[in-house]
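Subject: Sanity check before I submit

Could someone independently write out the structure tokens for this chain? I want to compare against mine line by line before I put it in a report. The sequence has 573 residues.
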Amino acid sequence: MKDRTNRRLNFLIFIFLILTAGIICRLFFLQIKEYEKYKKLADTQHLKEMEIPAKRGRVFLSDGTTLIAENKGLVNVAVSPREVKNPQELARKLSLALGVSESEILEKIKDKNKVWVVIKNNVVLEKTQNIEGLAGVYLESHLDRFYPLGRMVSHVIGFYGFDSSGKKKVGQYGIEGFYQNELAGKNGFMKGVVDANQNLIFSLKNEVQEPVNGVDLVLTINPDIQTFIEAKLKETFEKYQPRNATFIVFSPKTGEILAMASLPNFDPNEYYKEKDPKVFQNPALLSFEPGSIFKPITAAAGIEEGVITPQTTYYDSGAVKIDNFEIKNSDLKAHGNQTMTNVIELSLNTGAVFIQQKLGREKFVEYVKKFGFGKKTGIDLFGEESGDIENIVHPRSNAKLIEAANASFGQGISVTPIQILMAFSAIANQGKMVKPHIVKAIIYPDGKKKIIEPQIVGEPISPETASRVTAMMVSATKNGYSKKAGVDGYLIAGKTGTAEASWVYFGEQKPGYSGMNIQSFINFAPAFNPEYILLLKMDAPKRGPRFSADSLAPVAREINLFLLNYFGIPPSK
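---
Independent answer below. Compare away.
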């Protein structure tokens, strides 16, 4: 009997030990191995996190007052009662701003155990200016981006729109895209314990992280110059009906973009209405064959290397034969004995080839790179291309000579307008090449300001060479094809350009050249101490003259008149 009792007791003990072991194993599994999983599950049930959006930074033109991008919309105003030090004073300020009675506000914020109470929803943003930053006050934004100037400077600003997922808005193209992180700031959050009804209650686990608002940007774009440039661009576009056109005004001393405009453009407030996303790309940053505006670069390389001077002569027979190829002047004429200055005045292709051959291919390529071609300038705008100089850097084995010869007058290589401006800054700025930039100042949320300083990025030529090339371009404006851009009493250094465009350039998958052209014009003034460089470009105009000397040069003269007067520059003689 006793043995039977012992066996039963032992059995019960055995069962108890097994159950105990099972419980211990289960607790180990739940508390150790699966801890993170169940912790997250518990936190989901008992903790609530609310995002506090940061305010996106604004964008101004160079005057610091003309807004081109701002936030417009509604906000929800909430208060964390336990952070309020003076409820009566806070209620008074909120009442004045929101139109809610002080007694109602005091009733809502009297319970210090509440972490978050909404005072009023959907408040117009402007009404919250006097309460933003008050202790315990939080603004939950329902903002959208607004562009007061519409299509003006659209390629510079870009837009704020949905990303590829269609769920999140981000800055795209232009300033909005390049400075996305800086403009966006960093969202904050409020995390706290909730009751059964999902209401926040006081707890030591509660946590608040305030948002860090985005920076404000002040651009280099001058509102007066931009307005005038956009008007002239529209007038030119309607007159000649090109596929697209771009006008830029650039400071060769500081690298600031004073004006930048292109057509066709878009309204960033209604970006979603555009059917072709190519319209969002800034043509100032896209590659093209520059044509004869490249000839001063070739001349500068030749003078710097001592293989020519402005007075060096050659005989122009109207054509140059290289292997099985023949290069002719654009006017298809022979001009006999000509100086290098005449080459710039008359835009002689054979003269540019003469200089390149004096340099040799390797030395010519070296200078093309020194002037910044073949790589991005680093301008602070989204979507910059690097251009393509591959044909001369690594030419095909059977075309080493012809590729470099073509490049000497701007064919067979591609550059961007912004690269051209940077390269010409070396000629206009005594050999010093400045980096182009579009942001003048960054203003941080705490009010501190960072000024963007000019940056010298190279000295491809000496001051003496720069002065000589400038004189050659002045002669072109006085006596050559750039004459129609001249202004009486002023020395203006100018150069025309008309390039043949390939089918590929116009988006057609066809070999060879299209028969359509790219017209361009560049000048700077006053020539030997310039305030600005002006670049005009248009693609495949349907109407008007074949050469930029007759189409864009007269437009440049009108812009020069405006700019010389705007900067208060007196005549030189």
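---
OP: Matches mine. For the report I'm noting this point. The domain at 223-566 is CATH 3.40.710.10 (Beta-lactamase).
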